[in-house]
Design a protein that fits this description.
- The chain has a domain of 252 residues.
- Helices cover 64% and strands 2% of the residues.
- The protein is built from 19 helices and four strands.
- A hairpin with a 2-residue loop joins strand 3 and strand 4.
- Helix 5 packs across helix 6.
- The protein is globular.
- It starts with a helix and ends with a helix.
Length: 567
C-alpha cells in the first residue's frame, strides 16, 4: 500500500470518526423527542402529516405491531412503484420513447419495485435506457427516501429494546419514519445535492442532446436530474445509479471530492448509530467498542483489496506489462479511490460503485463478497448495520457463555433460550437465502444462461455475488452476469425480501423481548461490553460465521480462480 493510499484511507476514517459523536447525538435527540434547531420549521409539517394520516405518534407499539406496520408500509410502496414502472410511458418529459431501448416487462418491473422498496436497488437494466425522468424522481428516489427511513426506524426500535426495561413497547413506527425523513434524510440531501451540483453533477429535465464526435459520428449524450437521485441513493444506503455504470459515470462522480462526499454520505449515519446505541442504552463506551470493531474489519478489507489490485494481473506481467490492475477503473479515481469505494459500498449495503468489480483480481473481488456475507456489520445499511453487528456479537457471547457455563448477558439484558433462538434464526437466514438459489442457478440452463462472458470459477463467483448482494440488500453486481432474464428477475425477489424482512423481524422480536426484561447489574461473570475482549469476541464470531457458512462456496469461486493464476 502506497503512502498516498494510506493517507487517503486514514483521512476518510478520520472524518467518519470525527462525525460519529455529533451525528449520533443528533439522532438520539431526534428519536427521543429532544429539541433540535430544525424543530421550528419541521414540527408544523410533522403535525400536518400526522393529521392527514390520522396517526397518534404518542401511541406506542409492541414489536408485533411495529413489524406489521413496517411490512405493510413496504408492501404498499412496492405495489405503487410497480404500477408507476408499468405506466411510465404515460408520464410527461424525457427521455423520448426511442431512447428507452429496454422494455419494462412485468418481471423486470416487479424485480425493480421490490429492489428499491427493500433498499437493495438491484438493477437489471440501464437507467438511461429504461427509465423516464419522472420515474426516477418520483418512483426510485421516492423509495430511496421511504425505504431508507424505514430501515433507520427499525434500527432505532432495536436500540430501544436495550434502552428500556420492563416495557411492552419499542416505539411508534410512523413517528420514527416521519422523523427519519424530515429531520435526517431530507435536510442532508438538500445540502448534499447542492454540493454535488457545484461539483458538476447535472440537474436538468432537458432532452438528451445529440452531438457529432471527432470521428464524425452522431452520439446521444444521456443526462437528466442526476443530482436529485445521487445523494439520497447513498445517504439511504440504496445505491441505484441514474446511469448503467453508476458512480463510474462522470455525471455521477465527476471529481474526487464528489466521490468523497458520496462515500461520507454512505458511511457516516450507519457508523454514528453505534454512538446513538451507546447513548440511548446508557453505556457510551459499549457503542464505541462496536464502532472500533467495525473500523478494524474495515481496515482489514482495505488492506487486502488494495494489495490485490496493486499487484496487478500476473498474466499481463508474463507479457511484460507491469503495474496495478487498472482494467475496469476510471483513471480519475485510480486504485485508491476505487478500492475505498468498493470496500465502503460493499460494507454499507450500498450498491453504488465507481468501477467494474467484474475486472477485479480474484482475491480483491472476494473482499466485497465477504463484506456482504458478513451481513452488513461494518457500518452496514441505515439502521440494519447496527442490529446486525449486535446480533453477531451476541452469537459470540453465547459461545463464550457455553465455555464458562454462564448465561450470557449484554448491557444488563439476559440472553436466554428464547432470545438465542431468534439470534440463531437471524444467523441462518443469509446462508440459506444465498446458497440455495446459487446452487439452483449453477445446475440449471436458465441460471447458466446469464453467464454471457465467463464460465468456470469466475462465472460461479458472478452468480454467488449476485445472490449475496441481493440478500445483503446491497445491489452491486459483477457485470459479466446478464441479470435481466426471467430466471434472475424472479429468483432474486425472495432473496431480497429475505435480506430485508428475514433479518429485520427477528431483530424486532429480540428487541421486544429485551424491552420487557428488567436491567441486571453487571457482575464478575459478565463479559464487559466496553472491553477489548468483547470486541475480539465480536470479530471472531463474524469471521467464524462466514467461514462455516460460505467457505466451500468461496473455494469454488474466487479462491479457485486465484490458484489458477500463475504465481
Amino acid at each position: 500500500m502506497s503512502i498516498s493510499a494510506s493517507a487517503q484511507y486514514t483521512l476518510f476514517l478520520g472524518l467518519i470518526t470525527a462525525l460519529v459523536k455529533p451525528a449520533g447525538a443528533y439522532l438520539a435527540r431526534v428519536f427521543n423527542g429532544g429539541r433540535t434547531k430544525l424543530d421550528g420549521v419541521l414540527q408544523p409539517i410533522e403535525r400536518l402529516i400526522y393529521r392527514v394520516m390520522r396517526i397518534d405518534p404518542s401511541v406506542e407499539m409492541s414489536w408485533q405491531s411495529y413489524a406489521v406496520a413496517f411490512i405493510v408500509f413496504t408492501a404498499v410502496g412496492t405495489l405503487l412503484l410497480y404500477a408507476l414502472l408499468r405506466l411510465q410511458m404515460f408520464l410527461p418529459g424525457g427521455p423520448t420513447a426511442d431512447q428507452l431501448t429496454t422494455p419494462m416487462t412485468p418481471d423486470l418491473a416487479m424485480n425493480t419495485a421490490v429492489s428499491f422498496s427493500t433498499t437493495t436497488t438491484w438493477q437489471a437494466y440501464g437507467g438511461e435506457t429504461t427509465m423516464k425522468y419522472w420515474t426516477q424522481i418520483a418512483g426510485l428516489a421516492g423509495q430511496n427516501f421511504f425505504a431508507g427511513a424505514a430501515g433507520l426506524a427499525v434500527g432505532i426500535a432495536f436500540i430501544r429494546g436495550f434502552a428500556r426495561a420492563q416495557c411492552d413497547t419499542i416505539g411508534n413506527f410512523w413517528f420514527d419514519l416521519v422523523r427519519s425523513i424530515l429531520w435526517v434524510l431530507l435536510p442532508i440531501c438538500v445540502i448534499g445535492s447542492v454540493l454535488l451540483i457545484w461539483q458538476g453533477v447535472p440537474m436538468t429535465f432537458a432532452s438528451y442532446p445529440k452531438l457529432n464526435t471527432i470521428e464524425g459520428q452522431l452520439q446521444t449524450i444521456a443526462r437528466g436530474p442526476v443530482a436529485a437521485l445521487e445523494l439520497i441513493k447513498n445517504l439511504g444506503t440504496n445505491g441505484g445509479g441514474f446511469f448503467n455504470v453508476n458512480g463510474a459515470h462522470p455525471f455521477e462522480g465527476p471529481t474526487p471530492l464528489a466521490n468523497l462526499l458520496s462515500m461520507l454520505a454512505i458511511a457516516v449515519l450507519p457508523a454514528s448509530l453505534t454512538y446513538t446505541f451507546g447513548h440511548m442504552a446508557g453505556r457510551p463506551k459499549a457503542g464505541w467498542v462496536l464502532y472500533a470493531t467495525m473500523v478494524f474489519l474495515f481496515v482489514v478489507a482495505l488492506v487486502f483489496c488494495d494489495m490485490g489490485e496493486r499487484r496487478g494481473n500476473p498474466l499481463l506481467a508474463q507479457l511484460g506489462v507491469a503495474g496495478a490492475n487498472m482494467e475496469g477503473k476510471e483513471v480519475r479515481f485510480g486504485i485508491t479511490q476505487t478500492v475505498l469505494t468498493a470496500v465502503t459500498t460493499s460494507n454499507c449495503a450500498t450498491g453504488s460503485t465507481n468501477a467494474m468489480h467484474d475486472s477485479f483480481m480474484p482475491l480483491s473481488v472476494a473482499v466485497p463478497l465477504c463484506n456482504m456475507m458478513l451481513g452488513e456489520i461494518v457500518f452496514g445499511g441505515l439502521g440494519t448495520g447496527l442490529y446486525s453487528i449486535v446480533m453477531v456479537a451476541l452469537v459470540g457471547l453465547f459461545l463464550a457463555g457455553l465455555m464458562t457455563g454462564r448465561t450470557p448477558e449484554y448491557l444488563g439484558k439476559k440472553i436466554g433460550p428464547g432470545e438465542m433462538k431468534l439470534i440463531a434464526l437471524f444467523s441462518l437466514i443469509t446462508p440459506l437465502a444465498v446458497l440455495t438459489p446459487t446452487a439452483i442457478a449453477v445446475v440449471t440452463n436458465s441460471g447458466l444462461a446469464g453467464l454471457s462472458t465467463n464460465t468456470g470459477p469466475h462465472g460461479f463467483t458472478e452468480i454467488l455475488y449476485a445472490y449475496g448482494s441481493c440478500c445483503a440488500n446491497n445491489g452491486q453486481a459483477m457485470a459479466g452476469l446478464n441479470a435481466n432474464l426471467l430466471f434472475y428477475n424472479l429468483t432474486t425477489i425472495p432473496v431480497m425480501l429475505a435480506g430485508r424482512f428475514g433479518l429485520a423481524i427477528p431483530a424486532l422480536a429480540l428487541a421486544g423481548r429485551l424491552a420487557r426484561q428488567g436491567r441486571r447489574a453487571q457482575h464478575a461473570g459478565t463479559l464487559p461490553p466496553d472491553s477489548m475482549l468483547f470486541a475480539t469476541v465480536a470479530v471472531s464470531s463474524a469471521v467464524l460465521i462466514v467461514l462455516l457458512s460460505f467457505l466451500p462456496a468461496l473455494a469454488l469461486g474466487p479462491l479457485l480462480e486465484y490458484f489458477q493464476f500463475p504465481h
